[in-house]
Amino acid sequence: MSSSVIDILQLEYQRFSVKEKEIADYVMRNKSSINNINIRDLAANTNASMSTITRFCKKVGCDTFVDFKIRLNREVQHPRNDTDIFMKTQNIYNNIVNATAEMLDTSRIEQVVQYIKEARRIYVYGLGSSGLSGLEFKHRLTRMDIVIDAVTDSHMMIMSASLLGQDDLVIGLSNSGRTTEVSNALNAAKNRGAKIVGITNFDHTPLSEISDICIFTPEIGRSGDVNFINSQLAIIYILDVISLLLLEDRDLLKARQQTLQALYSAE
């Protein structure tokens, strides 16, 4: 797992105290200019004591505030003059994709791929936009002759979970990791012996705690002004990687080619 300051701020956010969350929020909103202020300024701007700032820095793996600033400055992509909306959108997408690639834990991804290959059947649970990502993943894996369904209704999640067994796999999608309906259904599936994979932004959440394997993605807010930017971009990136790894299997690749040929022939 990456040890970057920005990643730690995101993943450990749920463990911070109320004051530490305020400091983290301020840092993420102003990360491009933190290098220009001293510890007294940050304390004043967040209504915290300098000792609280120092403890906060140590909590994210930095010895001092100066060390924190240096590491953060190395990671921050300093803002460009994006007056052109086309260039601004491109830069936001590039930042999200790059951050996702940097957070990627290849060993966990490979284990998820193995889970998928071994599963009798697979369900993907997600609400709202996450549900749409689940449907997209279902379509991809169905073309590989993998038994999979995407469930986007909370009642159907609970019903399907109640029928699962040890040979089944459930993938839960939630940016916040706190979508109650998804977590409840995953708990029900876990109690039936199914394997659980979570894809989310935050560690120490109901979703991450119930998962056998959890894949973490960057929070879209890390890229600044993200009005109308697809909140599922990082999750789609992960699903793309999983799909491509599955297609390294000759049988799955052959099945995909057959289904695509059938579609082309029907046109």
Q: What would your notes on this structure say?
A:
- With 267 residues, the chain is an alpha/beta fold.
- It contains 13 helices and five strands.
- Strands 2-1-3-4-5 form a five-stranded parallel beta sheet, sandwiched between helices.
- Helix 7 packs across helix 12 (233-246), helix 8 runs parallel beside helix 12 (233-246) and helix 9 runs parallel beside helix 10.
Protein topology:
Elements: H1 5-11, H2 18-29, H3 39-45, H4 50-59, H5 65-75, H6 85-103, H7 106-118, E1 121-125, H8 128-142, E2 148-151, H9 154-161, E3 168-173, H10 180-191, E4 195-200, H11 206-210, E5 213-216, H12 233-246, H13 250-266
Parallel strand pairs: 1-2, 1-3, 3-4, 4-5
Q: What's this, in brief?
A:
The chain is an alpha/beta fold and 267 residues long.
Give keywords.
267 residues, alpha/beta, 5 strands, 13 helices, single chain, 5-stranded parallel β-sheet, 9% strand
Percent helix: 55-70%
> In percent, how much strand structure appears in the residues?
5-15%
Number of strands: 5
DSSP helix count? 13
Question: Biggest sheet, strands in spatial order?
Answer: 2-1-3-4-5
Task: Kindly report how far apart the N and C termini lie.
Answer: 46 Å
Unreliable stretches (pLDDT < 50, length at least 5) are: none
Order of helices and strands: HHHHHHHEHEHEHEHEHH
What spatial form do the alpha-carbon principal axes imply?
A: globular
> Biggest β-sheet: count, sense, barrel?
5 strands, parallel
Radius of gyration: 21 Å
Assembly of the depicted chains: single chain
Structural class, by secondary structure, is alpha/beta
